[in-house]
Design goal:
This is DegV family EDD domain-containing protein. The protein has about 290 residues and is α/β, with parallel strands linked by helices. About 40% of the residues lie in helices and about 25% in strands. The protein folds into two domains: about 120 residues, Rossmann fold (3-Layer(aba) Sandwich), CATH 3.40.50.10440; about 130 residues, Hypothetical Protein Tm841, Chain: A,domain 3, CATH 3.30.1180.
Length: about 290
């Protein structure tokens, strides 16, 4: 059955996936206080400029979900190209309205398409890993219903941990309470934030980056024990490439057998993460039977 995969731009797809003929993307937007609008992107030039600008501007940019008309046009294109099924994978429903909007629009196409909606309960490279695993499942001939169930299992079992240099952006964006931000600044604590079933919550509070890295290493060891079928280990950052690569290399030295991915958080995610944030995602491998 010919199947299209639709993701949103926070997935940070690698070039080979972005250019895959069966993978399509809808883009979120960032609007600066002066009215400038940029499309969420993985373009390195735009990313560098974005992270430089958010440290200079007094007011935090606004983020917005994809324009509904763009998804509507995309679904019409998918139907016209002869696809019978579409799998939509979006960033957490708890931090964006993208999943709800996509669900409403795709409902209008249920007479023409088999539609499988996935709330990733995460974002960034977690979605990218889901896309790669979806392609493997399609190649193995798994049904849409089985793929949906396995992706929902992935959403429930994948975990994202993030360390912030500054919690102000999370508070301004309504993603974290002001008390946590005050404590982090006043006591020089580096909170590890976790995506818990799609919600952003404080996981632990530590005082140094070294202690954060040690804790991440422990979390990887726990995941390796919990998921014997293997895991993807991914790292995303807000213009902190040197530091995140050093962390990746420490963990990779202990676990060289796994797939690793390092890259920028897109502007939409960077608005809330801020410059210097660093994240690690642990994504289990699904079984292909």
């Amino acid at each position: 059955m010919k199947t299209a995969i639709i993701v949103d731009s926070t997935a940070s797809l690698a070039e080979d996936l972005a250019n895959h003929p069966d993978i399509y993307q809808i883009n979120l937007l960032v609007t600066y206080a002066n009215g400038d609008v940029i499309t969420d992107t993985t373009d390195p030039v735009v990313l560098k400029e974005f992270y430089h600008r958010i440290t200079k501007d007094k007011e935090l940019p606004k983020t917005s979900q994809p324009e509904p008309v763009h998804l509507y046009k995309l679904l019409k294109e998918v139907v016209d190209k002869g696809y019978q099924s579409v799998i939509c994978i979006h960033l957490s429903d708890k931090i964006s309205g993208t999943f709800k909007t996509s669900s409403m629009i795709t409902d209008e196409f249920r007479d023409a398409l088999n539609i499988y909606m996935i709330d990733s309960k995460g974002t960034s490279f977690v979605i990218e890993s889901m896309v790669k695993q979806t392609l493997h499942m399609l190649e193995k001939g798994l049904s849409g219903e089985v793929i949906q169930a396995k992706l929902e299992w992935l959403a429930d079992n994948s975990t994202i941990y993030v360390m912030f240099e500054n919690l102000e952006n999370l508070v301004k964006g309504g993603r974290l309470g002001t008390i946590s931000a005050f404590l982090g600044t006043a006591l020089r604590i580096k909170p590890i934030v976790v995506f818990d079933q799609g919600e952003v919550k404080v996981f632990e509070k530590v005082r140094t980056t070294k202690k954060v890295v040690r804790r991440w290493q422990e979390l990887v060891r726990e995941a390796v024990k919990d998921y014997p079928n293997g895991i993807d280990i991914v790292f995303a950052h807000g213009d902190a490439e040197t530091e995140i690569i050093e962390i990746k290399e420490l963990i990779q030295a202990e676990f060289p057998q796994f797939e690793y991915r390092v890259g920028y958080l897109t502007p939409v995610l960077g608005v809330h993460g801020g410059k210097g944030c660093k994240g690690m995602g642990l994504i289990p491998k699904v079984t292909l039977d």
